[in-house]
Design brief:
The protein is an alpha/beta fold. A 5-stranded parallel sheet has the order 2-1-3-4-5, sandwiched between helices. Strands 6-7-8-9 form a 4-stranded antiparallel sheet, covered by helices on one side. The protein has a 3-stranded antiparallel sheet with strand order 10-12-11. The protein is globular, with a radius of gyration of 18 Å. It is built from 8 helices and 12 strands. The N terminus is likely disordered. Strand 4, helix 4 and strand 5 form a beta-alpha-beta unit.
Length: 243
Amino acid sequence: MSEHNVPHPVARILVVDDDPTVAEVVTGYLERARFAVEHASDGVDALRRAGERRPDLVVLDLMLPGLDGLEVCRRLRAAGPVPIIMLTARSDEEDRVTGLEVGADDYVTKPFSPRELVLRVASVLRRDRAATTAAPRGTLRAGDLTVDPKTRRATRAGKELALTLREFDLLAYFLEHPGTAHGREALMRRVWGWDFGDLSTVTVHVRRLRAKIEEDPARPALIQTVWGVGYRFEPGPGQEALG
């Protein structure tokens, strides 16, 4: 698929990168794919621009002067939901995982294919629009967990959970399919809407979700690991998931 044929209404993309060459290439490809693109060369400028007008998605470099990409990601997330794709020149897995843990939806490692980046941007936006425009589903419950897809609020024992966009989608999917084993590839397709990507994205989001809903995240009772397959959501005896 050519990036020119990616179907989407005009979306505003904020590209944050201090490398003029990378910024020019990324901006050019996104504009040719008919996105409206704004560029910030550092974290402070990015936060200012995002505060003035919220973008539909942020392409964020990890290595920025002054305020680094991880801190920018944290602050963007604290200000409200926005999809973030992180760019990094680092090959160390720990840095990529850290980016996902602070709220990035995906990452792309430099050097990268600009066409692939465009397709990832379009994929993330399609998924988020689908979640916004889909017919509202009924409230989902499992034990003391309650998920309301219409208002996109999740609570545990009556206390609201601070979930990222993708954590919410993942929890809702688990509650809709209790007792079923899901491979990471299947979760990436059905929750993220991607046919490609690093499966550690799923692993990190499951770990973050466990930390927020499990009594003991080190010994998860709800989101159980199915060795050789992936994960299974188990509401527990007498606590079936209900729509």
